[in-house]
Every structure is written in structure tokens, then in C-alpha cells.
UniProtKB/TrEMBL annotation:
The keyword Membrane applies. GO terms for molecular function: serine-type endopeptidase activity; signal peptidase activity. Keywords: Hydrolase, Membrane, Plasmid, Protease, Transmembrane, Transmembrane helix. It comes from the Bacteria. The keyword Ubl conjugation does not apply. One of its GO terms (cellular component) is membrane. It is found in: Membrane. Belongs to the peptidase S26 family. Its main location: membrane. It comes from Ilyobacter polytropus (strain ATCC 51220 / DSM 2926 / LMG 16218 / CuHBu1). This is Signal peptidase I.
Length: 170
């Protein structure tokens, strides 16, 4: 009797494991894991791009001009090819900088650092370089040390791969 129950148990366990593996395989292209402190660490569900508005979290390829900072300075590992950031401004917003301060629509938003935490120079962008043009977005992380649009400028809509929603924070 015990042998029959154990066979049933093993059979159902195998079915359960295969089902879970199948589900994970099916949704793997809809998930990403954020290990950076730029946004809350966790698992994000990727959705289509659709309409992108202020407040959306987007995933995009690391801008070519920023790879030397991000990978060269080991801000992120070389196998990380995409960034996850929050859209804080569109071409409709007025972005400007005064010294080390970033303003959006006349309100102070954050600081722009001239050096990273190791004392190395960061890229300097003028107000003109920061202002998003048509179909561009200004993206920031929540961490004041985030490497984001303050240092590489606005990103083009065509560079955005997906919007993302946090589904599991860790």
C-alpha cells in the first residue's frame, strides 16, 4: 500500500515540476530582474511599449556613449545590457540645470553630480542636452547615485524595449 502511494506522490511531483518549468519557460521573455539600486530591486513584468507617459518604468539598451562609464567603471557587470529607469519628463516638460541642480517645470528635482562615488568625473550635459525632443524621454533612477539621463541625456522612444511593472520586491 505504501509503495503505491509513493508512486502516486512521485508521479504528481514530477507533473508539478514539469508544469512549473513549462510556465517559467513560457513567461521568461516577460520577466526581468533588477539588481541595481536605481529602482527597487526585484522582479519586473515586461509589457509592450504602448503609450509611454511620466511615471512609467521603462527598459532600454544601455546607450552606446554610456557603456564606457557603466561597464568600464563597473557600475554594472558587463553581461548587463539594459537599464531600467522611471520616465520623469517628456518633451512637454521644461528641463534645465543650474550648476549641480536639475529642475523640471521650474521645480527642483535632484542634484547632478560632477564626480562618481570614487571621485571620477561624470559626463557634463548642458540644459540643451538634457531637454527631451519629440519622442524622447528623460529617465531617472530613485537612487541619487543612479547613472541616468542626467549623464547620458534623454532616450529615444525607439530605444525603449518595454514598460515594466514591479511584481516581486526583494
Amino acid at each position: 500500500m505504501i509503495d503505491v502511494d509513493m508512486k502516486k506522490y512521485n508521479f504528481y511531483l514530477i507533473i508539478l515540476i514539469l508544469s512549473l518549468v513549462s510556465i517559467l519557460f513560457a513567461v521568461r521573455n516577460h520577466l526581468t530582474i533588477n539588481v541595481s539600486s536605481s529602482l527597487p530591486r526585484g522582479v519586473y513584468w515586461l509589457i509592450g511599449t504602448g503609450e509611454i507617459t511620466k511615471g512609467d518604468i521603462v527598459i532600454f539598451n544601455i546607450p552606446k556613449k554610456s557603456e564606457k562609464y557603466i561597464h568600464g567603471r563597473k557600475y554594472l557587470k558587463k553581461d548587463v545590457k539594459k537599464l531600467l529607469k522611471k520616465v520623469v519628463a517628456t518633451e512637454k516638460e521644461n528641463i534645465f540645470r543650474i550648476d549641480d541642480k536639475l529642475y523640471i517645470n521650474g521645480k527642483f528635482h535632484s542634484y547632478i553630480k560632477s564626480k562618481d562615488s570614487n571621485g571620477r568625473n561624470l559626463p557634463y550635459l548642458s540644459t540643451r542636452d538634457l531637454q527631451p525632443k519629440s519622442n524622447e524621454f528623460f529617465v531617472l533612477g530613485i537612487n541619487p547615485n543612479s547613472f541616468d539621463s542626467r549623464y547620458f541625456g534623454a532616450i529615444k522612444r525607439s530605444e525603449i524595449k518595454n514598460k515594466a511593472k514591479l511584481i516581486l520586491k526583494y
